[in-house]
């Protein structure tokens, strides 16, 4: 059922104390004063904006922010929980969906004034990967503003890792300490070790949802596909040309699923079951599995990390947090080139604010998005828990309070912020970008079907070859080349 809220003036409900404290401290000294109505009165009086947001929790966080903006400007904001309809002026979209709307010419371009030094949005404060066309645009044009980012971390049972018997046995077997995994290969070793020790799988089942399974695969493949480049270029500089190739080639639009990096990721996926680390496919929630001891470690989204906290309490000391792993090297036709740690971020999830081109109130729509995604309100979103950082300030070690909403103690809160910092990997110049073409859902479903076969023992190269053939049959590269180029910000 859709939930609509019409907000114009008056006071909204008070946010939780921790959210208020966190947002105040994070934003202190960084954001300009809120605008004051001029002599003409409320500057947006008579304006009505219809806003959609399909994520119920995010909509609940944004609603009082929109109410405050409406009261200050005189506008009326009707916020609806659900996908963007034809009646909407503004949409908070899953990042992968922006391309479909932009490709049809239905979105207004972000005004160039947003990039001005004095603009209240503070453009340069947004993390570079989230303000470039490969993530928030279509072709060479920017259409979206980051409202909330995603994030992933490894959560593990610290009590199991601290067991001396397990530690001694692991060192005897692998010649290194038992510790949170730094690489995907380490994760497989640790998971297989505990599975053998417990005579039961140590990981949750692979995601039953096609999008989540493909996302895990792409995150593993990103490290195997290329070496992370951290030198050269200027801070905040966007990747270009071949550096943008991931799921597709940038020259002809052909799928890259059979490249060595993807095959290596498929092999990693298949070996999890072969080594007894994962149970049979099932629609299982990883959080209770960790709590009940049926999983020793898991890759969790920040939304799932937030669910570790019991109502009104703190997160159990048994849970530790570590960054998302990298790989031990990158794959080439001649084999894997070893590296101490190779982490390449996959930039794929999160939520973007966009304004419909046909709206009668485009300027007001962008003004509202500047509020929702600006320095102060974005800090509130992070402090609410469940979403990743969109701005550099969210990763400032002096503003750890923004992450206290997850319910960890001080040391684990720092570990979570470190995991968020490592997740976005702002120093990496060649991140991988997820599927953003209008047909991304169909392509994801075709890939996930073959990944399930890989998990059941099918040869990865053959299965990924079938996935690539399915992509080509459904959307020939010759026809889709230009869309696939625009999806990564190329003209």
TrEMBL record:
It comes from the Bacteria. It is found in: Periplasm. InterPro entries: Bact_solute-bd_prot1 (IPR050490), SBP (IPR006059). It holds the Pfam family SBP_bac_8. GO terms for cellular component: periplasmic space. Belongs to the bacterial solute-binding protein 1 family. This is Bacterial extracellular solute-binding protein. It comes from Urbifossiella limnaea. The lineage of its organism: Bacteria, Pseudomonadati, Planctomycetota, Planctomycetia, Gemmatales.
């Amino acid at each position: 059922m859709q939930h609509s809220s019409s907000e114009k003036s008056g006071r909204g409900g008070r946010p939780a104390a921790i959210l208020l404290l966190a947002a105040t401290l994070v934003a202190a000294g960084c954001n300009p004063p809120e605008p004051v109505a001029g002599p003409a009165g409320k500057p947006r009086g008579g304006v009505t904006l219809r806003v959609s947001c399909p994520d119920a929790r995010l909509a609940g966080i944004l609603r009082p922010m929109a109410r405050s903006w409406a009261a200050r400007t005189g506008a009326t904001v009707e916020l609806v929980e659900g996908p963007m309809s034809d009646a909407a002026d503004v949409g908070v979209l899953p990042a992968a969906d922006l391309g479909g709307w932009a490709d049809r010419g239905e979105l207004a371009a972000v005004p160039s004034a947003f990039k001005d030094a004095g603009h209240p949005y503070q453009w340069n404060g947004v993390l570079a990967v989230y303000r470039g066309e490969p993530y928030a645009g279509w072709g060479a044009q920017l259409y979206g503003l980051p409202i909330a980012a995603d994030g992933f971390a490894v959560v593990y049972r610290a009590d199991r890792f601290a067991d001396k018997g397990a530690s001694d046995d692991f060192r005897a077997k692998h010649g290194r300490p038992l510790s949170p995994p730094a690489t995907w290969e380490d994760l497989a070793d640790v998971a297989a070790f505990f599975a053998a020790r417990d005579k039961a799988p140590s990981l949750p089942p692979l995601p039953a949802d096609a999008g989540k399974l493909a996302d895990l695969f792409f995150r593993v493949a990103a490290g195997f596909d290329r070496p992370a480049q951290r030198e050269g270029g200027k801070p905040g500089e966007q990747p270009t040309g071949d550096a943008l190739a991931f799921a597709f080639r940038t020259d002809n639009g052909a799928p890259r699923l059979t490249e060595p990096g993807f095959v290596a990721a498929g092999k990693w996926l298949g070996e999890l079951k072969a080594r007894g680390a994962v149970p049979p496919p099932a629609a299982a929630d990883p959080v209770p599995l960790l709590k009940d001891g049926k999983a020793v470690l898991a890759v969790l989204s920040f939304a799932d990390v937030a669910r570790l906290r019991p109502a009104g309490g703190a997160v159990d000391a048994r849970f530790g947090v570590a960054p998302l792993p990298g790989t031990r090297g990158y794959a080439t036709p001649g084999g894997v080139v070893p590296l101490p740690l190779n982490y390449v971020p996959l930039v794929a999830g999160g939520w973007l604010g966009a304004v419909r081109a046909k709206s009668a109130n485009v300027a007001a729509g962008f003004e509202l998005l500047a509020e929702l995604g600006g320095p102060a309100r974005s800090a509130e979103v992070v402090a609410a828990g469940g979403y990743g950082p969109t701005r550099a300030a969210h990763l400032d070690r002096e503003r750890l309070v923004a992450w206290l909403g997850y319910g960890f103690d001080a040391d684990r809160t720092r570990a979570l912020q470190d995991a968020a910092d490592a997740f976005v990997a702002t120093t990496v110049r060649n991140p991988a970008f997820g599927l953003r073409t209008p047909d991304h859902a169909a392509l994801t479903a075709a890939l996930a079907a073959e990944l399930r076969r890989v998990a059941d023992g099918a040869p990865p190269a053959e299965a990924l070859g079938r996935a690539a053939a399915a992509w080509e049959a459904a959307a020939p590269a010759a026809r889709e080349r230009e869309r696939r180029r625009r999806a990564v910000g190329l003209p």
